[in-house]
Design a protein that fits this description.
Chain lengths: 321, 293
């Protein structure tokens, strides 16, 4: 057959291509670029693994059960833990989530459904600006809004500052996820006679849910590692004792709202704040603990990230069946 | 040669279909015109649709007979889908869209101010080009519509789901996995699920926007068979690019094209067999013989 169609003669074709002068150079450039881009990728990953490795090496050895279950001991007394900071971080994150998620979700729905109205455009512009505001400025804002009028630092002020940090990411990721839901899904529901709000709630929201939740968790992880906005708001509190606050409130016969209100009024520590303060402490025990805290904080953020991504995979797989 | 052959095939298809119609129909025929006397289900009168200021469909008047399949054919971008969407006011969803003229369902103008859009969309269901099952189970997909209208009784819902899936010729394939995600079945099954979902709100008219465009030939065939079974209970209006499909499934065909104002307008409407074998307009003839479009 080859004789019938000389252009298909493979030996002829190979010699035609490899015979050209540029071919070797092209292959060389290809290899060179591959090596270059690969090396730069490794370089970019280097700080990440270095940080993880270094913190693990320095902090890992000071990780023990006491760290998670004990309150800080007085200066100079060995042992103790950072239970107060773990509780503080969890509560700050909870307050931030309770404030930021409903606001972010509803605002995102508005922005996704009315992108070209003045309010929609304003919201998008506003979130862009807000995400560029340094977090310490957000802290000052929460200081002026809550700390100054109330006269003291508090969990509430810290949670609020963290909520403001979370808002732009929450709104934008949620909005993007809602927009990713195919229009024809929404039309399908509307064509059945579903009103717009039911469509949004029952069809669009579930379809976007896994993405929205990832957005929430990522912004939570981001906010829980923040230090600067807490400096003027939650301040830090070595003597914070959640168990005592609760048991004290219960034995004084206070209602659950009183106890919660009281807790919200307290200045609290967070892992990031503790890390910042302990690392500057003259006491070597505290410096060592600060490495352990850094390790715990990093793991916390990492676990939230992994959970978020795992959840997305799980949801996607479930929908695929 | 090729166009002639294609045209012949279309004619044959249309003729076979026409014979089927005559054999199966219980309609009375007026002797002189050999046209069945049919009740009009939907009607557009001087319908014009604007996007912003651009005229997309101009002065469109059409009577859609009840319990028949009416196909709307025409070249890409001639406003077929826009027209179809205006029939259950899905055009309302596109901002700055403006509709003039009227669309009548059983003589009632759908664009009258006192019309309840929700109720109107229940009466006029829609099936889209790409299957769009909701991200929920097969059961919940079908039960979605009835639930909107307040059906809460589990037994009643079970009954609706089974009936509609059977009507959509999907029951036997999914009856063992009703709790599985509606997105986990094949494209053709998804499209039949969407048809079942549309049937569940007891519509009178079903609009189909290229329902088989994203399906393989076997799935397409199933949808077409399904349409034949549904037409005794529903009035079906289908938009299609595919002339063979229009010739195979429809009883009536409307051919539309861009007019001098670059707006979609009706060129010819008639019984499918007649339109394909003996088109009255030169443009129709050129289109159905594949000379353009």
């Amino acid at each position: 057959m080859a004789e019938l169609n000389p252009t298909l003669d493979t030996s002829l074709k190979v010699s035609y291509i490899t015979g050209r002068k540029g071919y070797l150079r092209r292959k060389l450039v290809n290899v060179l670029m591959l090596v270059l881009t690969g090396a730069v990728t490794l370089l970019a990953l280097f700080p990440l693994f270095w940080i993880i490795g270094y913190v693990m090496a320095k902090g890992g050895q000071y990780i023990n059960l006491d760290l998670f279950t004990q309150l800080p001991r007085p200066a100079g007394v060995a042992g103790g833990g950072v239970l107060h900071a773990i509780e503080g971080t969890l509560m700050l994150t909870l307050v931030a989530a309770v404030v930021a998620i409903p606001i972010g979700l509803l605002a995102a729905f508005y922005a996704a459904y009315h992108p070209n109205t003045p309010l929609g455009v304003g919201l998008r512009f506003g979130t862009d600006v807000l995400s560029g505001v340094p977090s310490i400025v957000v802290g000052i804002f929460a200081y002026a809004l809550v700390v100054k009028p109330s006269g003291h630092y508090s969990l509430l002020a810290g949670g609020l500052a963290m909520a403001i940090i979370m808002l732009p990411t929450t709104i934008r990721t949620t909005e993007e996820m809602i927009k990713l839901v195919p229009t024809n899904l929404r039309e399908g529901a509307l064509a059945l006679g579903a009103p717009e709000w039911k469509t949004a709630l029952q069809v669009t929201f579930p379809a976007a849910l896994s993405g929205i939740l990832t957005g929430f968790m990522l912004s939570l992880a981001r906010a829980s590692g923040e230090t600067a906005p807490l400096l003027f708001t939650a301040l830090g509190n070595d003597r914070f004792d959640l168990a005592k606050l609760i048991s004290g409130g219960v034995s004084a016969g206070q209602s659950i709202f009183n106890i919660l209100g009281n807790i919200l009024q307290q200045p609290v520590d967070s892992l990031a704040l503790t890390l910042y303060k302990y690392s500057q402490d003259p006491n070597i025990n505290r410096v060592n603990q600060s490495w352990a805290v850094a390790f715990v904080l990093m793991m916390l953020v990492l676990i939230i990230n992994i959970l978020a991504r795992g959840w997305v995979e799980y949801r996607a797989a479930k929908l695929r069946g | 040669m090729e166009t002639a052959l294609q045209s012949n095939q279309l004619t044959t298809l249309a003729n076979e279909n026409q014979r089927g119609l005559i054999n199966s129909s219980a309609f009375t025929f007026s002797k002189e015109k050999r046209l069945p006397v049919l009740k009009t289900k939907m009607e557009t009168k001087g319908l014009s649709i604007y996007y912003n200021k651009t005229l997309a469909v101009e002065d469109f008047s059409l009577s859609v007979p009840a319990n028949q399949i009416t196909a709307i054919i025409g070249p890409s971008g001639c406003g077929k889908s826009t027209l179809l969407r205006s029939l259950n006011r899905m055009t309302d969803l596109i901002p700055r869209t403006h509709v003039e003229g009227s669309v009548l369902l059983d003589g009632e103008n759908l664009y009258a101010p006192n019309i309840d859009v929700v109720e109107l969309r229940r009466r006029i269901g829609m099936v889209f080009q790409r299957p769009n099952p909701f991200p929920m189970s097969i059961y919940d997909n079908v039960a979605y519509g009835p639930r909107i209208y307040g059906v809460r009784n589990r037994v009643a819902l079970d009954d609706i789901v089974e009936t509609c899936l059977k009507q959509a010729a999907l029951w036997d394939e999914v009856k063992h996995k009703l709790n599985q995600s509606g997105m986990a079945i094949s494209g053709g099954q998804q499209q039949r699920l969407c048809i079942a979902r549309a049937l569940a709100v007891e519509p009178e008219v079903i609009l189909m926007d290229e329902p088989a465009a994203s399906l393989d030939p076997i799935a397409t065939l199933k949808i077409e068979e399904l349409m034949q079974n549904l037409k005794s209970s529903y009035t079906i209006i289908i938009v299609t690019h595919n002339m063979q499909q229009a010739a195979r499934v429809s009883n009536f065909t409307a051919f539309m094209m861009l007019n001098d104002h670059k707006a979609g307008s009706l060129v010819e409407f008639g019984e499918t067999a007649g339109l394909f074998t003996n088109p009255k307009h030169k443009q129709t003839q050129e289109y159905v013989t594949g000379r353009f479009g």
